[in-house]
Please model this.
Amino acid sequence: MFLLYDILFLLVMVVWLPVDLFRCFRRGSPRQGMAERFGFLSQKRFATYGNRPLVWLHAVSVGETRAAIPLIRAIKKENPEAVLVISNVTETGHRTARSIPEIDECIYFPFDFTPVMQRVLDILNPSLILIVETEIWPNLVRLAHVRRIPISLVNGRISDRSFPRYHRVRFLLGVTLRRFNHLCMQSSRDARRIQHLGARTEDIHPTGNIKFDYQQPLPSDQEIRQWRETYRLPEDCPIWCVGSTHDKEEEQIARIFRRLQMADQKVILVLAPRHPERKQAVAGVLKQYGFPFRFRSELAENAPSLKAGEVLLVDTMGEMIRLYACSDIVFVGGSMVPIGGHNILEAALVGKPVLWGPNMQNFKDISRKVLLAGGGLQVKTLEELFDLLKIFLNDSKQCELFGTKGRALLESNSGATEETMKILRPYLENR
Model:
């Protein structure tokens, strides 16, 4: 069965690789980390760590990488001698991982082809492998099992969209899932789903969602003033921050921003596309509507502050929480188009009210909890979004009330990291 998987994987690669390289050539940016994707890691680079235990954590992209931060911090705090290596599939995820101080090495995830994965395992020789959310690669799991390397799924989830797809290949998936040591799932529903797909009941643990454990002190008024100064955002104008947008969402946001202007609403838009490399396409939308805008990467210290009706187009990484903290109201993208939504808890973390659209399949439990707690609201249409923005942008007390409730939700739902650590601790202590 795994030989057949390798053959199919190789056939897909023969077709995909030339197409992917051509796309990179057309957009003028080479595919990053291609050598690492084929398993060519520097042996000298990892030999410098000697016999220190190495934990390999895989997080496919930005969302999974950010979600893993509480667990990464907990592992490093309890095991400071451990070498933490994180792998990503996407370039944006890789850039996010490099900004995490507890991480020792960042690599691109190797292709799940037996010779490639064997080479990587030979070089890394991990003591423990952790896979974040739902990146289930059969060869990685099989080879780890053969080598007696403990491997666990952490913060696992099976979304509404992925469950039917997984169900169609459960004959292969079940074999793979039974080779995990532990499957730490976000909810009892996720636990039931992964059991249905073939995992052993005794290996499944509903540990909760680690995203709720991403805690930090609320920023002070002085910090927010300093950040606003950095972003050239004035104190006397409301800020609407829109994060993690995708193609076609920026057009919808631009239409709402235009309507706010026509309604004499003084507001500045901070727009952060999910993938900063799309900045020129997003800039094209803003130019089409005639909005004055500035790129975050081009802001000068002595530049004049933005004015009502202008847009700060964020083309950098790792600044969303600060931008949310500088805002009055937050909208999280990936929810007005069929993407499945993105993490809305980052807005709650800094005490800001958050809005999101109808497509939140990937964050169903989180969005339900935020809604019930009164920390945010879901909109079904652009008309609803426009109406709510007018209310929040003109009512600071309402913003503060929603933000306080969202922050309280995080505090009351924390604990998933410790529950996960209880399961992982024996493997970390015995290595």
About this structure: The chain has two domains: 30-215+414-429, 221-412. The two ends are 32 Å apart (CA to CA).
